[in-house]
Queue: 2 jobs
Job 1
Amino acid sequence: MHSFARPASFAALVAAATVGLTSAALAHVGDHSHMSFAEGLAHPFTGLDHMLAMVAVGLWASQLGGRALWLLPLTFPAIMTLGAVLGFGGVALPWVEIGITASVLVLGAAVALTLRPSLLVSLPLIALFAALHGYSHGVELPANASALTYAGGFIVATLALHLIGIAIGFAATRMPVRFAARTAGGAIAVLGLVLLVTPH
Ligand SMILES: [Zn+2]
């Protein structure tokens, strides 16, 4: 077993950051009457749930290595798009918001605990979470061309967040702080837990 030691000051920092950031998570709902590429691009960076989960996917991909390094960051946006199509098509899916928040907790914990399951486990898990992230927006997309430009921006931002996670993961292995990536994963998991218990 790995021990995941975290100084109390770090926990306090996370708590303080959370107070400021939970309001950012609420950016999830908003005015969707006009949807541009730039808005699609901005949303995953302003919605805390998306941002944390997508960075965690990159972190996890860097920990898993091998084919997972590119399979995870490509599977997520692909299945996310499929989820958006399902939502847009009116397919009913339960527990979407809780599932999205749970994805932050689960993916953060996977990174913090350096879980390294086979692709048979990691890919379906990533796919399930990706579908929920996409679905939540598919249901609210307007039935016009702006939906496509918004989705384009959303997908580009998702890939960027995966790459940021991968970059952090790789940088962490070169840093004197050996557990930097796992600490980032732990912070993501803690924030996921806070989002889960915070009514929104
Ligand atoms: Zn959102």
Job 2
Amino acid sequence: MKEGKPSATAEANAAFRAADSLRAEEERVCYDPFARDFLGTKFSIILKSKLLTKIALWYAERIVPGAPYSVVARTRYIDDYLEACIDDGIEQLVILGAGYDSRAYRFDKLKGKVRVFEVDHPDTQRAKIEKVKKIFGSLPDDVVYVPIDLDKRRLNEGLFKSGYDKDLKTRFICERTTQYLRVEAVDETLAFVSNDSGEDSSIIFDYAFQSALDGTLRHDEAKKWRATFEQRGEPPTFGIEETSVEEFLLKRGFCRVKNVSMESLGSVYFTGVSQGRKVTRLGGIVHATVDTQEQT
Ligand SMILES: C[S@@+](CC[C@H](N)C(=O)[O-])C[C@H]1O[C@@H](n2cnc3c(N)ncnc32)[C@H](O)[C@@H]1O
């Protein structure tokens, strides 16, 4: 991230969600009615015109192949997961690297029942809080904002003093964020989840393939992806190979690991009228439950 500035990729993600949410119901994959309200002037102007939106999506696809539709497929998958978790009786939700995630505001089933902790880099969170006040008139009672630079401070430092309860059944969502964190920060965060959450807690997060980060994957898509994020001041720093993700999580105190590649999500969601929309081949998404027998 650029010093003192909110994350540019967080805004771009919200813009992709906003563009999808404007489509007809049978055409869209994710529905985030607040995404548009979080955008700055440039994206707001683009979204007012169908033609400009089409050109912007085409351009985004050229610079980071698969990015626009990966964002909406990922958000939809996590939304479905969260819906199932709420029905399963979660007691607390922590959204890591929240950006302009609007789940705390659009999932009515959470309201008044589940406290949501939004953790983010202070520079992005400051901008988010201003937007939330503007959209809703005030900050919601059930949402706790926890500003932490996870590369510099540990999750427990901010969460415990914000009222997080380590005995509650908690879901952690970390969408499009692991790739920006130091390897040690990802490890420390996973250690917090596995040691400091109640029974049957779990985490869902997406990740980039290590081979896309280190240049082993030599195709054009990987090169463009790295170059774009470096240019934006948010170079990818963390990755895992899909074949080792299960072992990676088992070693860190998790069980019941379910992994899907972004490509396979694409083939589930982009059918019928939306067939042909491409998603990235460079990453996956995984959820796993804390193995209580392993808790220290
Ligand atoms: C690509 S955005 C994703 C935002 C949101 N989760 C989404 O899917 O739209 C990456 C997020 O990670 C956050 N982030 C990046 N580096 C961070 C750090 N060191 N500590 C905490 N958050 C960080 C950014 O502020 C941003 O909100």
